[in-house]
Design a protein that fits this description.
The complex is a heterotrimer of chains A (333), B (299) and C (348).
Chain A: H1 2-30, H2 34-39, H3 49-59, H4 65-77, H5 91-126, H6 131-145, H7 148-165, E1 184-185, E2 189-190, H8 194-225, H9 228-235, H10 240-270, H11 272-277, H12 283-292, H13 296-324
Antiparallel strand pairs in A: 1-2
Helix pairs in contact in A: 1-13, 5-6, 5-8, 5-10, 5-13, 6-8, 7-8, 8-10, 9-10, 10-13, 12-13
Chain B: H1 7-18, H2 24-36, H3 38-60, H4 90-126, H5 128-143, H6 146-157, H7 161-171, H8 174-188, H9 191-198, H10 203-240, H11 251-257, H12 267-294
Helix pairs in contact in B: 1-9, 2-12, 3-4, 3-12, 4-5, 4-7, 4-8, 4-10, 4-12, 6-7, 8-10, 10-11, 10-12, 11-12
Chain C: E1 6-17, E2 20-32, E3 37-41, H1 48-55, E4 63-71, E5 74-75, H2 81-90, E6 92-95, H3 99-102, H4 109-120, H5 125-138, H6 144-147, H7 157-169, E7 175-179, H8 187-204, E8 207-212, H9 215-221, E9 224-229, E10 232-238, H10 239-244, H11 249-256, E11 309-312, E12 315-317, H12 322-327, H13 340-347
The chains are: A mainly alpha (333), B mainly alpha (299), C alpha/beta (348).
Chain lengths: 333, 299, 348
């Protein structure tokens, strides 16, 4: 068990290092000179060489590339992600400012995913080949084919335009951008008008994963129902409800729960589009903006954080997998 | 162990061994199952329809770059899907947009599949350090959120169709490589492949005749789904402003351009949005249908 | 004879499939007395497992069951579902073929026995757990108080099947249906597991329906035998009657394919030629006719379904030529290999 965790942590460090290196190489070796880009105002005028030189010195770009790489790594290891090329704000401060929105959003999206995905998946499996099953299946396929921004506009059209035009009740008219008051209890329960801002992005972010989870839940349930030990449970004289709850659900939920954990990890980083559409101050929208600006320290630093969360979630999922599924013995192999 | 056999004998043995592998009737069975799947057939019809639209549509519609119309006109007899803020015909832009989506999706997926199969075969056939290095690299790539990686690459390369295709090709091959590698590892251990090796069939022939047919089925499924994903990704990148360059008619770009006027001119979002949804849906349905018909798991 | 514990009359089971209805069981009659062991013997696909599952209605919903399953006078096929649940496990318990898949991998073995006890008896958890440990002890699992908290993957194959037997016996049922209980086990532990089952059933006075394809098992453990072929019982009677005065060519063939430890060990094993028929389209007449060396046109083997007739008190078989063949001694086990060539001439 201990060796397993250690091994996985080393693996996580390796992936982080690899990701950092890959992005570093991408930006520095392929991407031209960020100082020049900045001094030229994004390419609109000829940069003044003196300005470029000053910028280079400030960003540490005047040193040789290998030196830059080593500096960059040793700073990162010490938890110093540098400062933004643009605003000179320390990356860690940007992360602190931006991360809560991303985490809250991911958390509520996973809650939506869990309740709707598992709920509809179970319903679909229990009433196999019914109208409800077909509707669920089709809805799931369609949901996974809609781009996030199209879904977002459809929702905003409904709650932000149609709802007003047709005098819908107040609760159904929702704001279309931003986080409003941004007030929370315990850091994640929205208070006052904040939930009205939260609900749409959370639904949009959850949509594709919910569709996938619905299908996975359905398949997993149907496969479990066919297993021998479920027949044994019936042969023991258990009621249908007990058979379902104790012997089908418990076993079928193992893959579902692991996917939920992984999804939380991905959503923190996958919220790029959602945050951009709804203009939310999260990590994703910052990464987009900084990537466009070639603001390398910000992109690298925030991506490292997102990767770390993702890696940590996978590790937790593996550990919980051992708890839910006694057949898996960690570290014994 | 190597048996003492002549090349001809080995070849004959190998030929008969090959018949143990997936056979022609398997494919016709799969096609029968596919045909019975109504959703999959709907997807296929959709894909065929969109390909026809992409091939002959551009010669039927107006010029997608002609700014001669009235700005943001609602659908009329002259402009069936209305006009955009510059007065361009939305239908023409959607038809050209679908053509561009299909083009990018197809080329990027072909590139991605070739790369994935190459990496996967090398890792799965040679194993050892080649496998370790390649698969660790895949782990690293998978650790970076897909859109962030693609974003960084396009940001570095600059906008444009070529940059988008290269980016998608270089970022989407991970799943293919993993699947192909798994297929190689699995097939390598099968008895008929061991038998072929034992009678001295050359490695290249074993790969071509025994191993590739076995990884072929999951790869087909991955290609169908991959095209859908590539089209979605292109739309996302263009929407974020780092994909196809304006004024090219990209569906994602069209949505991005008209997002400020979505309250007043919903048609500017609706038609390109439907274009993306239908295209992606078609390939996803075909992919799902193939997965069921070929009985491929874990893809 | 007393009223039988379980009496199955004219049981049929068919499955709806894409290619049409498959008639897996076609009019089976069985009867089990209290405390007795009935073996149901047949090749795979003969419908013996389906028969076992249908008694407690454990088949998938695509199965259609008709006939009568009379349990102490009560027809299980027409009682309400709540009653079936009482019978399952409480009065009739089942043991399945592969204990690895038949036990739930995510629960402790003890908890699965406890669950069974709690489903049928008004006892507390502690009491049920004590029972589970007792039962594990009874089936010969060492250190039962430790084993009770382990998972199935921590048990060996034989131990798992013992645990399954412990579970089946936990509520003191009157009848155990054991569906090929040793097929999935190593040959070396098969005998031990069967011995545990036979011994406990005997001591607790539990009747057993033993589904098996292994005539060797039957000889060692059963009182009564029913031989199934293509969804029908072709011969039934006491072990002595069926083994020593065989009344059906199929049984005879099964016996001839069995290695013998008594008498001539060098006698060749004679497999039955051919395959069991497809249950989608079984042949007309006697279903065994394509594989029977005695099948003849005049006797009606190819056209008329052979009726089941009594050969001696309690011994019945369904063969047009049974009386004639039995009289000539051609079906006798001891005749076996020696009569093989005589048989060929007889068929001409």
């Amino acid at each position: 068990m201990g060796t397993f965790i250690l091994r996985r942590l080393l693996q996580l460090l390796f992936v982080l290092w690899g990701g950092a290196t890959l992005l570093f190489v991408l930006f520095y070796l392929v991407g031209g000179n960020p100082a020049e880009r900045m001094a030229s105002g994004g390419g609109s005028r000829n940069p003044d060489p003196q300005v470029v030189a000053n910028l280079e010195a400030r960003m540490g770009l005047d040193k040789p590339r290998p030196q830059q790489y080593i500096d960059y790594l040793s700073r990162t290891v010490r938890g110093d992600f540098g400062e933004s090329f643009r605003t000179r704000e320390p990356v860690i401060d940007i992360a602190k400012r931006r991360a809560p929105t991303s985490f809250r959003l991911a958390m509520w999206a996973v809650m939506i995913e869990a309740s709707l995905g598992i709920g509809f998946g179970m319903l679909s499996a229990r009433k196999r080949n019914s109208v409800g099953d077909y509707v669920t299946t089709i809805a799931a396929v369609v949901a996974s084919a809609i781009p996030v921004f199209v879904l977002a506009y459809m929702l905003r059209q409904l709650t932000g335009v149609y709802a007003y035009q047709h005098n819908w009740p107040d609760w159904a008219r929702l704001p279309t951008i931003g986080m409003g008051d941004d007030r929370w209890i315990l850091g994640f329960i929205p208070v006052g008008g904040t939930w009205r801002h939260l609900i749409q992005p959370a639904i949009v972010l959850a949509a594709v994963s919910t569709a996938m989870l619905t299908r996975i839940t359905r398949t997993s349930m149907l496969e479990t129902m066919r297993l021998d030990h479920v027949r044994t449970a019936r042969a023991k004289g258990l009621g249908e409800k007990q058979v379902m709850r104790r012997h089908v659900l418990r076993n079928a939920m193992i893959p579902v729960i692991t996917i939920l954990g992984i999804d939380f990890g991905t959503m923190v980083g996958a919220a790029v589009l959602t945050e951009t559409v709804f203009n939310l101050p999260g990590l994703g929208s910052q990464i987009v903006q900084s990537a466009k600006d070639l603001d390398m320290p910000v992109v690298l630093g925030l991506t490292m954080i997102v990767m770390f969360v993702y890696g940590l979630m996978s590790l937790l999922v593996d550990l919980s997998y051992a708890y839910f599924n006694p057949r898996v013995r960690l570290g014994d192999d | 162990m190597e048996l003492d056999v002549t090349a001809t004998e080995a070849d004959n043995l190998d030929r008969s061994l090959a018949e143990v592998g997936p056979s022609r009737s398997l494919l016709s069975d799969a096609w029968r199952r596919f045909r019975r799947n109504r959703l999959a057939m709907f997807g296929l019809v959709l894909v065929v329809f969109l390909i026809v639209v992409a091939l002959i549509g551009p010669s039927l519609v107006q010029d997608p770059l002609d700014t001669g119309g009235i700005s943001k006109e609602k659908p009329t007899n002259q402009h069936w899907m209305g006009t955009d803020s510059l007065g361009r015909d939305v239908m023409a832009r959607v038809v050209h947009g679908i053509r561009l989506s299909l083009f990018i999706g197809l080329i990027a997926t072909v590139a991605q599949t070739c790369l994935g199969m190459l990496v996967g075969s090398v890792a799965g056939w040679f194993r050892g350090w080649a496998d370790t290095v390649l698969m660790r690299f895949v782990d690293i790539m998978l650790g970076i959120p897909y859109l962030v990686l693609a974003l960084a690459m396009v940001a570095v390369m600059g906008k444009g169709v070529t940059a988008v295709i290269i980016t998608l090709g270089l970022t989407a091959w991970l799943q293919t490589a993993r699947t192909v590698r798994a297929g190689f590892l699995q097939v390598r251990e099968l008895e008929y492949v061991e038998a072929a090796r034992a009678v001295g069939v050359p490695t290249r022939r074993i790969i071509v005749r025994h191993v590739l047919p076995n990884v072929f089925q999951p790869v087909i499924v991955l290609i169908a789904i991959g095209i859908g994903v590539a089209i979605l990704s292109e739309a996302a990148l263009s929407y974020l402003g780092v994909g196809v360059k304006a004024p090219a008619p990209s569906l994602g770009l069209m949505i991005s351009e008209s997002q400020s006027s979505f309250t007043t001119s919903p048609h500017l979002l609706f038609f390109p949005g439907m274009g993306i949804v239908l295209t992606v849906l078609g390939f996803m349905l075909v992919g799902d249908g193939l997965r069921d018909a070929l009985d491929v798991k874990d893809v | 004879m007393a009223e039988p514990l379980l009496e199955v009359e004219d049981l049929t089971v068919s499955f709806r499939t894409d290619d049409g209805a498959v008639q897996a069981v076609r009019g089976v009659n069985l009867s089990v007395q209290a405390g007795e062991v009935l073996a149901v013997v047949g090749e795979s696909g003969s419908g013996k497992s389906v028969t076992a599952m249908s008694l407690l209605q454990l088949l998938p919903p695509t199965a259609e069951i008709t006939g009568r399953v009379s349990w102490q006078g009560e027809d299980l096929l027409s009682v309400p579902p709540e009653r079936i649940r009482e019978v399952r496990g409480g009065e009739i318990a089942m043991i399945f073929q592969d204990p690895l898949t038949a036990l739930n991998p995510v629960y402790r073995v003890g908890d699965q026995i406890v669950e069974m006890v709690l489903a049928h008896e008004k006892v507390g958890r502690a009491e049920a757990r004590k029972r589970a440990i007792e039962m594990l002890d009874l089936v010969g699992i060492p250190q039962p108080d430790r084993r009770v908290d382990q998972y199935t993957h921590e048990f060996s194959g034989g131990m798992r099947q013992r645990a399954m037997i412990a579970m089946a016996l936990a509520c003191d049922p009157k009848l155990i249906i054991a569906d090929e209980p040793t097929t999935a086990l190593d040959v070396t532990v098969q005998a031990q597991v069967l011995e545990v089952l036979a011994d406990l059933a005997h001591r607790m006075g539990t009747a057993v329906v033993l589904i098996t394809h292994d005539l060797g098992v039957v000889a060692g453990m059963a009182d009564q035998v029913s031989v199934m072929y293509a969804g029908r019982i072709v011969e039934s009677g006491s072990v002595d009657q069926v083994f020593d005065a065989t009344g059906h060519p199929y049984t005879s063939g099964l016996l001839a394919s069995l290695p013998r430890l008594d008498g001539d060990v060098d006698a060749p094993l004679l497999p039955i030629p051919g395959q069991p028929p497809s249950m989608l389209a079984p042949p007309p007449g006697c279903a065994f006719n394509p594989r029977c060396r005695w099948a003849s046109e005049e006797a009606g083997c190819f056209t008329v379904l052979p009726p089941t007739a009594e050969r001696s008190p309690g011994h019945r078989s369904a063969c047009h030529r049974a009386d004639e063949l039995m009289a000539a001694g051609l079906l006798d086990r001891l005749a076996g290999a020696a009569t093989a060539d005589v048989g060929d001439r007889g068929a001409m």
